[in-house]
Amino acid sequence: MVFQAPKLRIIYLLISIFLLLINPCATQIFFNYTDFNNKPIIRTGNATISGSVIQLTPDEVDNWGRAIYSEQMHLWDEKSEKVASFTSNFSFIINSQGKDRYSDGITFFLSTPNYPVPSPTDGAGLGLLSRNQMNDATFLAANKFVAVEFDTFPNEEFDPLNSVREHVGININNLKSQISTPWYCTIKENRTYSASINYDSSTQNLSVTFTGFNYDNTIIQQHLSLVINLTDHLPESVEFGFSASTGLISELHILSTWSFESTAPSTIQQSPAPSVEKNKDEPKTKLVVGLRP
Ligand SMILES: *[C@@H]1O[C@H](CO)[C@@H](O)[C@H](O)[C@H]1NC(C)=O
Ligand SMILES: *[C@@H]1O[C@H](CO)[C@@H](O)[C@H](O)[C@H]1NC(C)=O
Ligand SMILES: *[C@@H]1O[C@H](CO)[C@@H](O)[C@H](O)[C@H]1NC(C)=O
Ligand SMILES: *[C@@H]1O[C@H](CO)[C@@H](O)[C@H](O)[C@H]1NC(C)=O
Ligand SMILES: *[C@@H]1O[C@H](CO)[C@@H](O)[C@H](O)[C@H]1NC(C)=O
Ligand SMILES: *[C@@H]1O[C@H](CO)[C@@H](O)[C@H](O)[C@H]1NC(C)=O
């Protein structure tokens, strides 16, 4: 936008600040990383920074890694019954470097803060949890997760038996996906995939768009979505990020870029007569520095 005078710019700034203050969908968290050096990302397990990217696991057996954002997201607010919306866009590489047999995959997850490490180390749970923890009702009740998995290995106990072994699924506190679809990827080669995960709290639609490859190597867009009330499945504040694992066989897992945006929990638009009054106990919304066009 071109401004004719500094005065106009100030007026524009004041109007923007005012709009941000009264806007119930003000941004809570926003970032856009194309280089992970010196960023507020917490790595655990075998995850390391390699150049500008995060190597969630090396191409070595029995490894797992996570990379989560250092701040929690305020996903919903019990008192006001408000829920946040968010979008997580990322690009990643899963590469078996020519090997025909490989495992296990990557997730984008939201979970109870300080989610325990997988114990014992176990590839099947994609860096989130082990089979033992999966079968422990007390563990699952205390530690909740919702994940979108990019799973490259079909575990016959809980994965779909498609002709395409790689699949993308939405997992609700379970390694067995609530819904899943074949993923047309080429893990033997060094290829970069993109994904966009969006949760719209007004429709409760958790939707995933991700890339795959056609036989002629052209990129295709694939989709998966699930209507889900996240307040039923996650605490009010969650940690969020990525996990990956390898097991008896392996592949390289790399997170190349990540951009993320969430709104502060806001009234679900479908509810009758949204209240204008602000709850005094409500946490203050963080304002994003910088103006949007
Ligand atoms: C993130 O940064 C990239 C590279 O600078 C830019 O192309 C992209 O538009 C940005 N995305 C958002 C959502 O700001
Ligand atoms: C992964 O972490 C485990 C536990 O710290 C360690 O024993 C193993 O050597 C690491 N793997 C690699 C490839 O560094
Ligand atoms: C894999 O592709 C990425 C992205 O294009 C590139 O940065 C990296 O060097 C490639 N790795 C290998 C081993 O070729
Ligand atoms: C959820 O969003 C996806 C992507 O926009 C859309 O294709 C799907 O129809 C939506 N689901 C519902 C139930 O509205
Ligand atoms: C979502 O679940 C919560 C907790 O069970 C419930 O209070 C709320 O009414 C549900 N929201 C909708 C829109 O169904
Ligand atoms: C994520 O990608 C979608 C679709 O390209 C775009 O509209 C949105 O602005 C992106 N958001 C972030 C936070 O990168």
UniProtKB/TrEMBL annotation:
InterPro entries: ConA-like_dom_sf, L-lectin, Lectin_legB_Mn/Ca_BS, Legume_lectin_dom, Leguminous_Lectin. Residues 31-270 form the Legume lectin domain. Pfam families: Lectin_legB (PF00139). GO terms for molecular function: carbohydrate binding. It comes from the Eukaryota. Residues 266-293 are annotated as: Disordered. The keyword NAD does not apply. Residues 1-27 form the signal peptide. The keyword Isomerase does not apply. Keywords: Lectin, Signal. Belongs to the leguminous lectin family. This is Legume lectin domain-containing protein. It comes from Castanea mollissima (Chinese chestnut).
